[in-house]
């Protein structure tokens, strides 16, 4: 399918006459050779015209052979030079100026293609490639591959349909068939042409799975209203728009085109489509890197630090937070837009986290830098640790998104150990608390604590206290070490929460108990992997 | 009034009072208001309430306050506590009768959704008398968010209540 044959002649003729560009013509002829599309616009035009003039008995493949070798030669001899050399004769200028430079080539001005509205014309040229690469380079991202995504104005689908209907009609009149499925999609052809050029200039390959995305949005305001007739023909395809965005999305338009009857289409839309005055415009060229994930474990040494910022009615109630103290340095190093902090459970403002610390993971959104060696991560960890005495981090490392799941499963399943400083109203002696050490697998029924009841559903939780170890201090104080199931409310186990946690220390000792201090001694999750820091 | 450090579960609650409810002398209630933004309130008997005086024995506690309404059937679901019975200040929570033939109605004292009533006092009425401000609470009520600040307007602060008690003492002596 790499060449034009006899049956393509009427297609080429018709499309040339109605103002369709050479590459779109190749698409409608189902030409599948990517390399052919990469030829300069002028050369393709020339070849098509020669094809039309050539004798009907001659082999047509000859045309393309003639064109190929010179291009190939240029590529081989000057590998470091860009596509500019290939196109120095054929570069498409803005429509008004074309005639000045290329009067010999065309009888009339180079029209903007009535099907692709210039996408396969101007926007395949080195000038545009340069513009994109300049934007990418100035955005200063670290990347090893790219994916190029393109958003095309919906009316292109409408015009494609219009051109195809005309062709279908013509072919029918000639007693020939026109297969719809073999027609090359516009977006596909565009990527065939532009990927190698982008790849060459950026120095990295195009990869559909790449995390670095360069995206371009094209628009053609001149023809925006061309889709509107579809709303009257297929009203149920177009849902009311949210946020003042246009109802005529690409998906909605395609859906309507599938539904609409041929006669209705022909009634409302000019077939063949008219030649527009202007090219498309590239509205935005944006770059985005996929998120990176940094994991570690944190210790919390302050009894006055929330895990996340504590802001009520726009007013900050307590200075700083665990997540901010860790993330601010990561944000600076990775140069990300924003972050999402998550951890394997959390502790209250007034609770310390000791031992190996609590596992956490931070998602850094749209980072400019993504590559960090183990050494650099170690240094980053040191920076965080020297900047604050309220928190410390360890085992700081890059992880994959899927690793986060392991951290969250720890939250539900793994055990935690605590140390609580307990006050008792009525005097106790050593003997009075020794029995606690012998209690194993104590089952608790905990109603949702009153202190969180305003934001959690009312429920009863069964939780287990695996072991306890008491340390007598004086007649009104003792320290209790406990190992509990994940999700146990320790404070409520001590003071009883109005009898809504049963049993509790008060009920076990037949007194009133209160908790003065609580520390997390360990979070028994073996993730992230321990590093030799 | 025990001014000693209120340790334990009550630590983060502020006490508000409603004395002589419905004109009945000394039938005082104490509303414990949590310090959180969306305040949860715990309805309890104030120490001056007749039921907490020595010599009184509780015969029965009944949460069925009318033919159609039992506070025990209150069911809430979800974070916003859908399905909760809505209470006004004088909505009855339960009726308690003592062995000497008296009957007392316990009132909500604040507007809001009924979250739960204390079923522990049904099985063990003595804790109502032994620990009226903690394990012996009557009910938990969640006021409407918009009304969080205004619910205490009809109630007395601890200091104001102390003055009421002082007046009672003086008038009876």
From TrEMBL, chain A:
<dbReference type="GO" id="GO:0005634">
    <property type="term" value="C:nucleus"/>
</dbReference>
<keyword id="KW-0819">tRNA processing</keyword>
<dbReference type="GO" id="GO:0046872">
    <property type="term" value="F:metal ion binding"/>
</dbReference>
<keyword id="KW-0479">Metal-binding</keyword>
<dbReference type="GO" id="GO:0003723">
    <property type="term" value="F:RNA binding"/>
</dbReference>
<keyword id="KW-0496">Mitochondrion</keyword>
<keyword id="KW-0413">Isomerase</keyword>
<feature type="domain" description="Pus10-like C-terminal">
    <location>
        <begin position="293"/>
        <end position="524"/>
    </location>
</feature>
<dbReference type="GO" id="GO:0031119">
    <property type="term" value="P:tRNA pseudouridine synthesis"/>
</dbReference>
<keyword id="KW-0539">Nucleus</keyword>
<keyword id="KW-0862">Zinc</keyword>
<feature type="domain" description="Pus10 N-terminal eukaryotes">
    <location>
        <begin position="113"/>
        <end position="287"/>
    </location>
</feature>
<comment type="similarity">
    <text>Belongs to the pseudouridine synthase Pus10 family.</text>
</comment>
<dbReference type="GO" id="GO:0005739">
    <property type="term" value="C:mitochondrion"/>
</dbReference>
<dbReference type="InterPro" id="IPR020103">
    <property type="entry name" value="PsdUridine_synth_cat_dom_sf"/>
</dbReference>
<keyword id="KW-0175">Coiled coil</keyword>
<dbReference type="InterPro" id="IPR048742">
    <property type="entry name" value="Pus10_N_euk"/>
</dbReference>
<dbReference type="Pfam" id="PF21238">
    <property type="entry name" value="Pus10_C"/>
</dbReference>
<protein>
    <recommendedName>
        <fullName>tRNA pseudouridine synthase Pus10</fullName>
        <ecNumber>5.4.99.25</ecNumber>
    </recommendedName>
</protein>
<dbReference type="GO" id="GO:0160148">
    <property type="term" value="F:tRNA pseudouridine(55) synthase activity"/>
</dbReference>
<dbReference type="InterPro" id="IPR048741">
    <property type="entry name" value="Pus10-like_C"/>
</dbReference>
<dbReference type="Pfam" id="PF21237">
    <property type="entry name" value="Pus10_N_euk"/>
</dbReference>
UniProtKB/TrEMBL annotation, chain B:
<dbReference type="GO" id="GO:0003785">
    <property type="term" value="F:actin monomer binding"/>
</dbReference>
<dbReference type="Pfam" id="PF01597">
    <property type="entry name" value="GCV_H"/>
</dbReference>
<dbReference type="InterPro" id="IPR039169">
    <property type="entry name" value="Abitram"/>
</dbReference>
<dbReference type="GO" id="GO:0051015">
    <property type="term" value="F:actin filament binding"/>
</dbReference>
<dbReference type="InterPro" id="IPR011053">
    <property type="entry name" value="Single_hybrid_motif"/>
</dbReference>
<dbReference type="GO" id="GO:0051489">
    <property type="term" value="P:regulation of filopodium assembly"/>
</dbReference>
<keyword id="KW-0966">Cell projection</keyword>
<keyword id="KW-0539">Nucleus</keyword>
<comment type="similarity">
    <text>Belongs to the ABITRAM family.</text>
</comment>
<dbReference type="GO" id="GO:0030027">
    <property type="term" value="C:lamellipodium"/>
</dbReference>
<dbReference type="GO" id="GO:0030425">
    <property type="term" value="C:dendrite"/>
</dbReference>
<dbReference type="GO" id="GO:0016607">
    <property type="term" value="C:nuclear speck"/>
</dbReference>
<dbReference type="GO" id="GO:0030833">
    <property type="term" value="P:regulation of actin filament polymerization"/>
</dbReference>
<dbReference type="GO" id="GO:0032433">
    <property type="term" value="C:filopodium tip"/>
</dbReference>
<dbReference type="InterPro" id="IPR033753">
    <property type="entry name" value="GCV_H/Fam206"/>
</dbReference>
<dbReference type="GO" id="GO:0048813">
    <property type="term" value="P:dendrite morphogenesis"/>
</dbReference>
<protein>
    <recommendedName>
        <fullName>Protein Abitram</fullName>
    </recommendedName>
</protein>
<dbReference type="GO" id="GO:0030426">
    <property type="term" value="C:growth cone"/>
</dbReference>
